[in-house]
Automatic annotation (TrEMBL):
Domain of life: Bacteria
Signal peptide feature range: 1-36
NCBIfam families in alphabetical order: TonB-siderophor
Coiled coil: none
Classification via SUPFAM superfamilies: Porins
Family named by the database record: Belongs to the TonB-dependent receptor family.
Subcellular localization, as worded in the UniProt entry: Cell outer membrane
CC annotations in GO: cell outer membrane
Name of protein: TonB-dependent siderophore receptor
Domain TonB-dependent receptor plug intervals: 83-178
Matching PANTHER family: FERRICHROME IRON RECEPTOR-RELATED, FERRICHROME OUTER MEMBRANE TRANSPORTER_PHAGE RECEPTOR
Topology of the protein relative to the lipid bilayer: Multi-pass membrane protein
A GO biological-process term: siderophore transport
């Protein structure tokens, strides 16, 4: 499709009230763009006029023209989901980029955001990242709901990924660096069916399907599923997971909408602690690298998790199109069992001290509800207003066991001595329970001071409480701990100034707080973390909106920071982070798409402990940068039509492996490259063939540190292939 045709179609489409997303969905595969039935916007759910709309028939080959440029978010702006109107930095990566990069885990995507790097992730079994120098803590959001999960997110369910930088005060509890929100795939009234199979040189075997369309003028469905049984470059590593998610949407003639969805997931993979460090001179240590495939846990490392999630979204007009009542209910239950091996120390003669430990019958339940009203009114000045209340309860219980220390094997040859599985005869066995409840009314207002200047105000009054118990199952005694009800008001203020048609400047202040949890192995109570951010920046549309650029400077401060080092919670005091970032996304010319970003951050610990005061926090680099660019031949007369080429570079600066700076992880640069080719089959079907290489230069690198004996290992060069069908 040529840009001129796309632009003309898009402008005409906009006049009908149908979203740009619906248009892109219609042209996501080869076929004609034509419409003669009512359509529901995927963004608003409102029906367009029932009058038939007939557009010129346009053949579309390959993928949409602007396939990396997504400007829609579900979190960070309650009154607007267009990131160009929100006075804060928000980065969005759509599903198409995940496909072009062959992303099989979310950690492969995070590194393409400025000032975002991966973290340890409990031996690679959970989502874990650092934003603007601050490690996340339960700040993985799914469709706007804050979640704690003991599993990875399956990319098959992802519509797009949004990273909201800095605190969002009307959300309430969160890490001041920012949060990640995963938007899952929703029903579309535009029919589409997709099937794909993926493999790689280390034994990836994965398949998925995605089907959506209209059941009637009022109902639409979507069913997504995947199955995987893959090996890894790490010895004896098998990842098995299944995923299934049906969703149904209804849109009434009056603008009311209801969407109900269910998601089943099963994830089985080893809990892999990676490499260890050994003493060198003085207090310094070095990372022992016996080979990227070598593991220290023998065969005692496995985690099985099964989850069920249910979700209900309702939107009802309140008398006029200007006001709506919205509600959300969410419930999840996740069951997990795990066994793994921990290195406890390295003796002076080089021998390892290890033990087998794990968790049985882990049962995590989360309930969330939200009711809000939003609309527009005139009060001397035009005002958009939203207010509501959210409630969240999370309960988790599990049995933790610890085996005896076992001495044998060496740092360079850990498998020279065989560990014994003594999990049935542990030296310690405890039953643990945690209960956390959060409740908070919130409000946000966008006030149009002038046509070019908008003031955003937001606040939330949060109530939070928690309790925990640890029962000794091999003896007597129960230890309990509790946080009394903590009340805290978080506030935000932002200005968005549209200086020119395509140039905006913004500034914001926001604060946040987050009570500590009881997942650190005891019932110790720490004071709540409290933080704030100042941010200024600009958002610019270039080349007739072909490119979108965001730049920002920020200053973040947080008190009462707790780090987990080798499984032990440590109160490090405070942390401060200052820096800047720049990102550019778009399609400069027909067929060419690009995403580029650079982030700089100066983060330091502010503590009374002289050994760490002023040090850079664990796993935080001073800079990171990324570039992904692709070109797809679009000219119908070209013999290369349907061929796409993509390449990317990510750079992460040096990081320290602990707060004391006793060892370094080093810096690294990764190069990825891929190609794909679309083969049309008739007018409405096409096959896509993928081939590519990750870590093209076979760079040896370390991704993150979870402590002295927990250093995560980066993947070597990996060749992959894929085959998909759209119909």
């Amino acid at each position: 499709m040529t840009t001129g045709v796309m632009g003309a179609v898009g402008r005409r489409w906009a006049k009908t009230g149908v979203s740009r997303l619906a248009l892109l969905g219609a042209v996501a595969m080869g076929g004609t763009v034509a419409m003669a039935t009512p359509v529901v916007s995927q963004t608003t759910g409102d029906k367009a006029s029932a009058e038939p709309i007939v557009l010129d028939s346009v053949m579309v080959g390959g993928t949409p023209q602007s396939r990396y440029d997504s400007r829609v978010t579900e979190v960070g702006g309650r009154l607007s989901n267009d990131i160009t109107d929100i006075p804060r930095t928000i980065d969005v990566i759509p599903e198409q980029l995940l496909q072009d990069q062959h992303a099989r885990e979310m950690e492969e995507v995070y590194r393409y955001f400025p000032n975002v790097v991966n973290n340890d992730g409990y031996g690679g079994t959970r989502e874990d990242y650092i934003i603007r120098g601050f490690r996340r803590r339960d700040d993985v959001y799914r469709n706007g709901v804050r979640l704690k999960s003991n599993s990875r997110i399956d990319p098959s369910t992802v519509e797009n990924i949004q990273i909201i930088k800095g605190p969002v005060s009307d959300i309430g509890q969160m890490t001041p660096g920012g949060l990640v929100n995963i938007t899952t795939k929703k029903p579309s009234w535009t029919p589409r069916n997709h099937i794909e199979v993926n493999v790689d040189s280390y034994g990836e075997r994965q398949t998925m399907f995605d089907s959506t369309g209209a059941l009637s003028e009022e109902f639409a469905y979507r069913v997504v599923g995947s199955a995987e049984a893959s090996n890894s470059f790490r010895d004896s590593t098998l990842v098995q997971r299944q995923f299934f998610a049906p969703t149904l949407s209804w849109a009434g003639a009056n603008g009311a909408t209801v969407t109900v969805g269910y998601e089943y997931g099963k994830d089985s993979r080893p809990l892999d602690r990676g490499f260890i460090t050994v003493p060198t001179t003085g207090s310094l240590r070095s990372v022992t690298e016996p080979g990227r495939n070598t593991r220290y846990d023998a065969t005692f490392a496995n985690r099985d998790s099964t989850s069920h999630q249910g979700e209900l979204d309702v939107s009802v007009p309140l008398g006029s199109e200007a006001w709506k009542l919205e509600g959300k209910l969410y419930y999840a239950r996740e069951k997990t069992d795990e066994i793994h091996t921990e290195v406890r120390s390295v003796l002076t003669n080089g021998s390892l001290v290890r033990r087998v430990e794990g968790n049985d019958d882990r049962d995590l339940r989360t309930f969330f509800s939200r009711v809000q009203v939003k609309g527009e009114f005139e009060a001397l000045l035009p005002v958009k207003f939203a207010t509501g209340v959210e409630y969240r309860n999370q309960r988790e219980s599990w049995i933790n066991y610890v085996g005896a220390n076992q001495t044998g094997g060496t740092a360079s040859n850990p498998l020279s001595w065989r560990l014994v599985d003594d999990s049935a005869r542990p030296t310690a066995r405890t039953a643990r329970k945690v209960d956390q409840t959060d409740f908070g009314p919130f409000a946000q207002a966008d006030i149009s001071l002038t046509r070019a200047l908008t003031l955003t105000l937001g606040a939330r009054y949060e109530y939070s409480k928690g309790s925990a118990s640890v029962q000794n199952l091999l003896g007597a005694g129960v230890t309990t701990g509790s946080y009394p009800v903590d009340r805290n008001l978080t506030k935000t203020a932002g200005l968005m100034w549209k200086a020119l048609e395509d140039v905006s400047f913004f500034a914001n202040y926001a604060d946040t707080f987050q009570p500590h949890n009881f997942y650190n192995g005891d019932t110790q109570v720490f004071p709540a973390e409290k933080g704030r951010q100042y941010e200024v920046g600009t958002k610019i549309n270039l080349m007739g909106e072909r490119l979108f650029m965001t730049g920002a400077l920020f200053d973040i401060k947080q008190n009462n920071v707790v780090e987990t080092v080798n499984g032990v919670a440590v109160l490090t005091g405070g942390q401060r982070s200052r820096g800047g970032e720049l990102s550019v996304v778009g399609n400069p010319t027909e067929g060419w798409n690009i995403r580029a970003a650079v982030g700089l951050v100066h983060a330091k610990l502010v503590s009374g402990d002289r050994t760490v005061d002023g040090n850079r926090p664990t796993n935080v680099p001073t800079h990171n940068a990324s570039l992904w660019s692709s070109y797809e031949f679009k000219d119908p007369q070209s013999p290369l039509k349907g061929l796409g080429l993509g390449a990317g570079v990510t750079l992460v600066g040096n990081r320290y492996g602990d707060a004391q700076h006793t060892f370094e992880l080093g810096s690294y640069t990764l190069v990825d490259a891929g190609a794909w080719y679309y083969i049309p089959i008739g007018d409405k079907r096409q096959v896509r063939v993928d081939f590519g290489v990750k870590n093209l230069t076979d760079k040896a690198y370390l991704t993150a540190s979870g402590g002295t004996y927990r250093v995560s290992v980066g993947a070597p060069r990996t060749v992959y292939g894929g085959l998909s069908l759209d119909f």
